[in-house]
Amino acid sequence: MPFYTQEQLGSGLRRNTEHQMTQPKVLISDKMDPRAAAIFRERGIQVDEITGKTPEELAAIIGDYDGLAIRSSTKATAKLLDQATNLKVIGRAGIGVDNVDIPAATARGIVVMNTPFGNSITTAEHAIALMFALARQLPEADASTQAGKWEKNRFMGVELTAKTLGLIGAGNIGSIVASRALGLKMKVIAFDPFLSPERALELGIEKVELDQLLARADFITLHTPLTDQTRGILSREALAKTKKGVRIINCARGGLIDEAALKDALESGQVAGAALDVFETEPATASPLFGTPGFVSTPHLGASTTEAQVNVAIQVAEQMSDFLLLGGVTNAINMPSLSAEEAPRLKPYMALAEKLGRLLGQVLGEQVRGVSIEVEGAAAQLNQKPITGAVLAGLMGTYSQTVNMVNAPVLAKERGLDVKEIRHEREGDYQTLVRVTASTPGGERCVSGTLFGNAAPRLVDIFGVAVEAELGGHMLYIVNNDTPGFIGKLGTALGQAGLNIATFNLGRRAAGGEAVALVAVDDPVPAELVQQLCALDGVREVVPLNF
Ligand SMILES: NC(=O)C1=CN([C@@H]2O[C@H](COP(=O)(O)OP(=O)(O)OC[C@H]3O[C@@H](n4cnc5c(N)ncnc54)[C@H](O)[C@@H]3O)[C@@H](O)[C@H]2O)C=CC1
Ligand SMILES: O=C(O)CCC(=O)C(=O)O
User: Fold this and answer.
1) Which CATH class is domain 472-547?
2) In CATH terms, is domain 120-297 a member of 1.10.260.30?
3) Which of these, 124, 218, 383, 467, is most buried using a 10 Å CB contact count?
4) Which superfamily, per CATH, for 341-470?
């Protein structure tokens, strides 16, 4: 699967093993609102809903699918993805993608997308709900009352008004929590190294360092992803620096808080209350924290409202369908976005770019040290990233079976390929042009192409020689001395080898100088014929090409 071609994406069809065209197939492997499956079906995608499978059971069936729609239960590990031989897209109906091995997916050319906003209000509301639960000890009071105890004097709460809320992480969800907390007349401070002072001002919150937040906050709520920097951000040492009697809420990810240290801090009274929706190990069916006074928990319910689940189900199904049917890319973690509206306009450019990359890869091989991709005229109005991805996929596709637009930029970087992007808004000789220049030890070599009728890719220049050729199927690239009679000899050799010529395109640097022929033939060119052609008088180079 070197490149998601028109056949693989955008036509709504896919090749099955018998090379027949079939509908794309999606597996929904976690419990999801039924609207997701309905959307896939409405858009002509086959869908199976198979939930609760073990990793081994999932590995046995995943090879059948083009798309995998998940929430947080399915673990898309490298081991599972090894079996996912047809998979093109993983859609996470939610925000956190820590259950997906992103580098493994990228390396296999699988786009990973999430739905970053569909459940954020719901999760922010859950954090606020837990803050109230802690402030007024609602779970304990409820349990006691329903046990017939009526312990009115046991449950003395605290007001939220005028208290300081410390946000760790003020992104999507953190900023919604801030707005709700400000409505409750709390003072909000935030530790987030990526929060700009302007944004803090706009949110009406104070940006502080972590130690200041620990020292000042009456309530702390966490809203960061789990990364190497945030793991254990509320460590034993950090908890010791908090204001005595602080209350802590975590609706983000388990692993942000040292759970053993939290238990000790609750028992010592340093922390008056803690509410966790997320745990280091999930499902958390046992935890030393369970039963600790002041501890409240929910089973990762942050996103569990009807509204949020409908939002994320619809969004993930639409995004995955757009990708599988039209090539549109929205909210991808490992690929630049490409809207479903942009995708049809970009598609012919991506086909052109892929062919130019493939041409360079086949002619120059391992000599290519870097590429510069220039877009000119109409092409410069478009998103250049997909064009670059397509050039790289074509270039590296000549020696890698696994490269595609998704993993090409990463693979290029890994291989030390220097990639440059240049944009010329003004038209040159053509209304639209893509030029790819490869740097090689022997100097720069450049090919250019345009679109005829805004749709049909054509090569217009190869290494400084003007030609006009459609790149497709089996071809021969021949460089020879421009002498009378050469074309006749070439035609005879091809005819004797039983190879039918489909199209013949010629160009030359100067009369009597170097000439170039691009010949499209109906069948693959046998190696013996290449040798025979190399031996013809005046031939300098013969390269069989496949597109
Ligand atoms: N409990 C649940 O069911 C749900 C949990 N979540 C989780 O909530 C978390 C937050 O989600 P969003 O707000 O949408 O993410 P976001 O990406 O919009 O915000 C994360 C914020 O954390 C900040 N951040 C990153 N590294 C940091 C560090 N070292 N120290 C302090 N701040 C740092 C970022 O700058 C960003 O502002 C994620 O972990 C997500 O997976 C999301 C939805 C539901
Ligand atoms: O799908 C869920 O219930 C979990 C949501 C979540 O954790 C997320 O979106 O990051």
Assistant:
1) alpha beta
2) no
3) 124
4) D-3-phosphoglycerate dehydrogenase; domain 3 (3.30.1330.90)
Going from the C-alpha of 412 to that of each of 1, 50, 109, 113, 349, the distances in angstroms are 17, 37, 13, 22, 20
pLDDT value for 532: 96
As a whole number, mean pLDDT of residues 402-408 equals 80
Which two tokens mark 57? Answer: 């059971």
Contact 278, 250 (CB under 8 A): yes
- How is 287-337 classified by DSSP, letter by letter? -TTTT-TTEEE-SS-TT-SHHHHHHHHHHHHHHHHIIIII--B-SBSSS--
ipTM above 0.95, yes or no: yes
Q: Does pTM surpass 0.80? A: no
At 402, the pLDDT band (50, 70, 90 cuts) reads: low
pLDDT band of residue 9 (cuts 50, 70, 90) is low
Q: What is the mean pLDDT of residues 503-517?
A: 92
What's the pLDDT score for residue 4?
Answer: 53
Angle at 38 between CA 33 and CA 39, to 5 degrees: 100
Q: Write down the pLDDT at residue 366.
A: 83
Ligand 1 site: residues with CB under 6 angstroms?
Answer: 94-96, 116, 119-120, 123, 168-174, 191-194, 223-225, 227, 229-230, 251-253, 277-278, 300, 302-303
Q: What contacts 49, CB < 8 A, 6 or more positions away?
A: 28, 32, 37
Q: Whose CA is nearest to atom 16 of ligand 1?
A: 171
* CA 139/CA 145 separation, integer angstroms: 10
CATH topology of domain 6-117+307-337: Rossmann fold (3.40.50)
Residue ranges of the chain assigned to CATH 3.40.50.720: 6-117+307-337, 120-297
Long-range contacts of 76-80 (CB under 8 A, 24+ apart): 76/100, 76/101, 76/105, 77/101, 77/104, 78/104, 79/55, 80/55
218: which 2 tokens?
């009456």
**Strand ranges (E), 86-183:** 89-92, 111-114, 164-168
Instruction: Return the exposure string of 83-100: e unless at least 16 CB atoms fall within 10 Å of the residue's CB, then b.
Output: ebebbbbbbbbbbbbbbb
Ligand 2 pocket at CB < 6 A: 71-72, 94-96, 119, 300, 302-304
- Quote the pLDDT of residue 103: 81
| Residue 484 burial (10 A CB sphere; 0-12, 13-18, 19+) | exposed
Q: Which residue owns the Cα nearest ligand 1 atom 25?
A: 224
